[in-house]
Write a structure and sequence with these properties.
The complex is a heterodimer. Chain A is an alpha+beta fold. Chain A folds into 2 domains: 2-120, NADH:ubiquinone oxidoreductase Nqo5 subunit (Beta Polymerase, domain 2, 2-Layer Sandwich); 150-190, no CATH class. Chain A contains 4 helices and 11 strands, in the order αββαββββαββαβββ. By secondary structure, chain B is mainly alpha-helical. Chain B has a single domain, classed as Cytochrome-c3 Hydrogenase, chain B, CATH 1.10.645. In chain B, the strands form 3 sheets. Chain B has a 3-stranded antiparallel sheet with strand order 1-2-3. A 3-stranded antiparallel sheet of chain B has the order 6-7-8. A two-stranded antiparallel ribbon of chain B has the order 4-5. In chain B, β7 (355-363) and β8 (371-375) form a beta hairpin. In chain B, α12 runs parallel beside α17 (396-404). The chains are: A alpha+beta, B mainly alpha. Chains A and B meet through β3, β4 and α3 of A and α2, α9, β6, β7 and β8 of B.
Chain lengths: 204, 413
Amino acid sequence: MAESDFALLKERFEYLTERESADHCAVNCPAEKLVELCTALRDEFDYDMLVDVTAVDWDAQSPRFTGIYHFLSTSKHEYLRVAADCPDDINPTLPSLCELFAAANWHERETYDLMGIRYEGHPNLRRILMWDEYPYHPLRKDFPLAGIETPLPAADVAEQTGATVIAAPMMGGPFVSSGDGPMSQTEPRARDESWTEKKEKPTN
Amino acid sequence: MATTTKEFTIADASKRSAEIESEAPGETMAINIGPSHPTTHGVLRLMMELDGDVIKKCEPVLGYLHRGDEKIAENMTYNQFVPYTDRLDYLAPLANNVAYAMAVEKLAHLEVPERCESIRVLCCELARASSHLLGIGVYGMDAGAWTVFMYTFTEREKLYTLFEELTGARFTTSYTRIGGVARDIPEGWLGRVLEFCNGVLPVLDQVDKLLTRNRIFMDRTQGVGTISKEDAIAYGITGPNLRACGVDLDLRKDKPYLGYEKYDFEVPVGTTGDCYDRYLMRAEEVRQSVSIIRQVIDKFPEGPYYAEEAKKIFAPPKAKILSSMEELIQNFMIVTEGPQIPPGEVYFEAENPKGALGFFIVSKGGGVPYRLKIRGPSFCNLSILDKLIPGHYLTDITVILGSLDFVMGECDR
């Protein structure tokens, strides 16, 4: 099923390449062709529901960010994954799909909020889960699990109490083995060691 | 000084109303509902602009329950994340557990034995019944019908006793493991599930009598909060809310998993997509769930309840660990390094009570996901609010929110 789908798409859009996938059909698409592809997907290939928009941060690799879109056809009952690499690693941008799918609005706001990808043409690209003034994009790989100290969202409370949002206490956090190497070196450790028996709890 | 009273006549009143009408229109009022308000069923906040009683603009504000589950998932092994899935749609934790385990198993190309599938189907359907029973109850309450809640909540309580017997916890079940479930079903449990099934149907009939033809309830819900078919698809609405709009999409039927194709059940589909239809969907879905549960129990398969050949994924039961060297090592490896999942990308959606709960997992191999994205159905279902609510009266808010039956736990994640 998935192969024939890809063949059909490839015939129409030469720039597509097949993406490795453990399940349904998946394609790589250049960012600048994304809107063209998705318009055709919706109007000609019956992929009428955009179920999910997200992104992956590949850390040290380049391109660093890949936008991932999942489509579902409500008539054929098939999924399709479209991946588009962000051309710029420092200021990642992708074209917005809000014009085509109303569902993209909140999904793109969320991806912008947590991953820091700017969607060009989005009517209201604001943070959705974190508060508006929050300075970081927490799902990026360089953001620590414990968090970073930031000012309180409520300025009046912050002024009166001097409180800030502090890094979470990680003592007893998830213990995970890194997995590669001999057992003696890969004993399970807390992933984030900003507060352990050996290191004082961060004060603020 | 004597007080004098001016007598108002009808003429005065009509003169005054003429004065008011000539006043410049456009004076609007801003009103906030939530984040802590009984109507919002959690911590949703609606910023609205009102003209009189009519809502002109509505802006939902989310994130009050944001825990960063996706970040947490990247920092722990696959099995360690199971308890976090309880807290997504916390009204149907069992269904979340199953959906998550299935997503990871799909990535590992792992098939679970039939008995495990049957247990999981039972989990999903019981969770659906529990979620919908509460959904109908509080929906009735939102519309002013308190009695319904008492009936449905009693039934839900019986379900929670069953969950406790099965998983050890009423609420935070954490029942599945990658490659199986935590333990086999207790003795006599299936019989007690059947007892529940027999008991819940009369209660549904009671609810039917109390609500379905209730003039007040109908007046408050019919024609209110109507979502069109096209809008529902464009906004990515799923679950009963989508089917109420007349779109026949149920992943259990259309993308069968867990052997749902073996069971005979109907998918209720609405016609108008208003608040009343959404109520009808849930009531009927509980009946269908009961029918599925009976079919599962009817031919409940024997055999193992976990994938025995998956030695690098499922930690063997305690009795085996304590008596055999190989199993002890296997358990140690899985606990410390996590289930070994091959590299790849997978997206799996399950038909949960609230809609399609999706997990997108990127693995680079090993016991920890590289990236895990959760697609919360409530998040998508709520995204239509800013289009749906304007034009309605302020009093309709309770009914519309109640009919959408959302959970902020999976919306904010």
